[in-house]
Amino acid sequence: MSRAQVEQQPTTATGNSLLIAVGLGMAFLLFTAFLGVMKAHSGPFFSESNMLYISLIFYAGAGALYMGFGVTGVERYVKFASVITVLGFLANTAAVAHRWYIAGRPPFSNLYEMLLSFVWTVAVLTIVAEKVYEVKIIGSVTMPIAVVSVILMQLMPSEVRPLVPALQSTWLHVHVSLAMLSYAACAISFAVAMMFLIKDKMRTETFQVLTAISMAAVYVSMMLRFRNGAFAVIGYDVQAKQEIFMPNGERLFVNIPDLGWLFLLVLLSTVAPIVLYFMGRLRNDETIYLHASRAMFITMLLQVVGLAAFVLRTKQGAYPAPEIEGLAPTALAASPFILAGIIGCIFAGLLYMMMLWRRSDLERLLPSTDILDRVTYKTICVAFPLLTLMIAVGAYWANQTWGSYWSWDPKETWAAITWLVYAGYLHMRITRGWRGRRAAYFAILGFAVVIFTFFGVTYLLPGLHAYA
């Protein structure tokens, strides 16, 4: 037996082992879900909630294989992940169709339905990018986005409710359709821009510090809930499935003891890789970058501990509520965006680890930098007109509903900021010839603004668009 054959055997075995593990895990989850439905007799198997759960299993399975490729470099994982992504898309399509049938209208009336449509569109564009443009590992970025979005949906009220008067308009379907299509195109441009930076030989240390800065930004925003070592979350009535409000109409907050200290520790751990990176730059010492990578790994472990503590403490329980001088209940459904932020940070860290371990394999699977740059540009050329039409339709609809084209509502303001960022990208590319990394940075910045517009404004700056 040749040396090459001997060296290849462990890789093949490892590949088979992970494929079997992922396949058995998905089969087990699907089978237990089927048994649960049969035992509960709660309705048809092909219901929206069941199809959405199945799509979550497939998206998570695809994500696991993409990550498995990052650890082992077995290219078969990417092929199977692509097939599983298609299966998740089919289940996602069934969930959208069921929702549309039951509601008698497109699923666009609240944040839950918007996420349902957003994930579906992201899956479509992921498949297109893989099959048409041969960006084979784009799912390593888009599948975590899909998984986080579906997990968020599991925590949100999903009942079909009558539309509020402001939403009883055909313009709702047009406005939100344009928003979801444009946001999904922005997500794809972000993923392709990330792939471009990998192919363009950007230093791994730069990826590391940018990932750490993103993590730190999330935990800094979470520290707004720090209360003398406790962590404040919204009170939630589990039976009524709604947030608890005080007599003056403000949300009631409860303080989970010691959880604030844990998140502060996680925040400090995200700062350590940043400090070490800049120390390495100042001293021109490559060995310090190794310490930064180790610090990044410790940060990942602490974030997993923080996630477990947050889920266990917040899932169900009663905690002090200073405003009423007593205890009040909460639940995980009251803090979906905090949960999404933590999970998103963990996924970002995993993506960095994948690049750290398998940089050469990733580069080999990617098309040329010219193709990736062109795909990023094309997706933004799709997103920008959709953003423009979304704002124009929204303004016309607002004038019909509220008597004003523009009211400087937080969602309107940040939609305009998003439009300006992508307008800046196109302006600099067309008039100044921006290509390469500068254009990729612009695309990444644009999607960060989209995320804040979609989630952050809803969570931090409620206004006339509180339903979305």
Describe, in plain words, how this protein is organized in 3D.
The structure is a single chain. With about 475 residues, the chain is mainly α. It has a domain of about 160 residues: Up-down Bundle (Butyryl-CoA Dehydrogenase, subunit A, domain 3), CATH 1.20.140. The protein contains 13 helices and seven strands. The strands form three sheets. A three-stranded antiparallel sheet has the order 1-2-5. Strands 3-4 form a two-stranded antiparallel sheet. A two-stranded antiparallel sheet has the order 6-7. A hairpin with a 4-residue loop joins strand 6 and strand 7. Helix 1 packs antiparallel against helix 2. The N terminus is likely disordered.
SSE blueprint and pairings:
Blueprint: H1 3-40, H2 48-72, H3 76-103, H4 111-131, H5 139-155, H6 170-199, H7 204-222, E1 226-227, E2 230-234, E3 236-237, E4 242-243, E5 253-256, H8 259-283, H9 286-314, E6 316-321, E7 326-331, H10 336-365, H11 369-402, H12 410-432, H13 436-460
Antiparallel strand pairs: 1-2, 2-5, 3-4, 6-7
Helix pairs in contact: 1-2, 2-3, 2-5, 2-10, 3-4, 4-5, 4-6, 5-10, 6-11, 6-13, 7-8, 7-10, 8-9, 9-10, 11-12, 11-13, 12-13
